[in-house]
Design goal:
alpha+beta; single chain; 346 residues
């Protein structure tokens, strides 16, 4: 218990020191956000260019989600129209940035200035990495893509890409930013409705997938040849792999990004002051129910509180500090209705 108290004290001292040095605190927070945003951008570009859209002859292209998926749709429209000579890697990079411009208006007006700035940084960095990471020209990336394709086939590529994309989105959510595109819309809706954000991206991506598959079939039919039926069958079959990609990405995002995951905590204690301590430390309402222990016959106090998952650790530390023998029940919630304090996004 002494070790736990020492850890809590050191953590409090560190927070107090940061509050006493606002300039250093500001610099460190922004450096950390910049690092996370860059790491997120590289992860997405790496997964997209090596596993989803390598641009190497003989490699099946899988539709990605969000703005990248919409960019793929635009490139596919160019192919259907007969513009096969475009530089696909450069086109995807430029389109990804352009498509995100109107979405940035929503981020700036509807969410927050800091959120919009770091989202814009992430979008620009993704565009840069997408142009630089070209497996068709860089031998190292080509060998990685080749190894995964030969040993894991299409399923392996989908799994690796989904993990990269999911981690990319989740990392930006953790710093109160996003990777642009559908993530901005998902973050905005999740913030307003106080629920998990992954499912909203899944809805938009499903619509994009339908358009992409239709265009891909048209392009195959235009190409003609004896293997038209086979190629159409392959195109339609890719839908199942893309759906798997979306589902895994959604799971990874909601697992890592815990800001919108709500938890109901019920505490049974004999300390009547515990509720006030919790309300002071954590900005949520707390309900008190008087109870009597059936076995002991003693008066008990049951405090019920709904918190975000990332607040749970601090809440448990307070409970242990005040009453180490308290009985605590933690129940995950799918969603909530009513008033719930949400930390404002800058």
């Amino acid at each position: 218990m002494a070790k736990k108290d020492s850890f809590i004290k050191r953590r409090k001292d560190r927070i107090d020191w940061m509050l006493d040095h606002p300039v250093i605190k500001f610099m460190l927070e922004n450096l950390w956000a910049l690092f996370m945003s860059t790491a997120s951008a590289f992860l997405f570009a790496f997964g997209f260019k090596l596993f989803m859209n390598p641009g190497i002859d003989g490699y099946t292209t899988i539709m990605s989600g969000g703005a990248a998926g919409i960019s793929q749709v635009v490139v596919l429209i160019c192919r259907v129209c007969g513009w096969e000579t475009i530089n696909e890697s450069l086109a995807l990079s430029i389109l990804y940035f352009v498509i995100n411009i109107p979405i940035m208006v929503l981020a700036f007006v509807g969410i927050g200035k800091r959120f919009a700035i770091y989202t814009l940084i992430n979008i620009a960095t993704v565009s840069l990495f997408t142009a630089l990471i070209d497996p068709a020209k860089i031998e190292l990336f080509k060998e990685i893509a080749k190894f995964v394709n030969e040993n894991g086939l299409l399923l392996g590529r989908v799994l690796f890409a989904a993990v990269c994309t999911g981690l990319s989105s989740a990392l930006t959510f953790l710093i109160d930013a996003s990777s642009g595109g559908v993530d901005v819309i998902a973050f905005y809706i999740g913030l307003k409705r106080k629920t998990l954000v992954g499912k909203y991206g899944l809805i938009v991506n499903s619509i994009t997938l339908g358009i992409f598959t239709t265009l891909d079939c048209i392009h195959v039919l235009q190409s003609g040849g004896a293997s038209v039926t086979t190629n159409v069958a392959i195109t339609v079959s890719k839908v199942f792999f893309t759906i798997l990609y979306f589902v895994i990405t959604t799971i990874v995002v909601d697992r890592v990004n815990n800001k919108n995951q709500k938890i109901k905590v019920e505490v049974v204690t004999d300390k009547p002051n515990l509720g006030k301590e919790l309300v002071v430390a954590i900005p949520h309402a707390c309900t008190l129910t008087n109870a009597t222990g059936v076995f002991s016959g003693k008066t008990k106090y049951v405090f019920t509180m709904v918190v975000s998952r990332y607040e749970l650790k601090d809440m448990l530390a307070i409970i242990k500090e005040i009453d180490s023998s308290a009985f605590v029940q933690v129940v995950p919630l799918q969603s909530i209705l009513g008033r719930f304090h949400v930390k404002s996004v800058r």
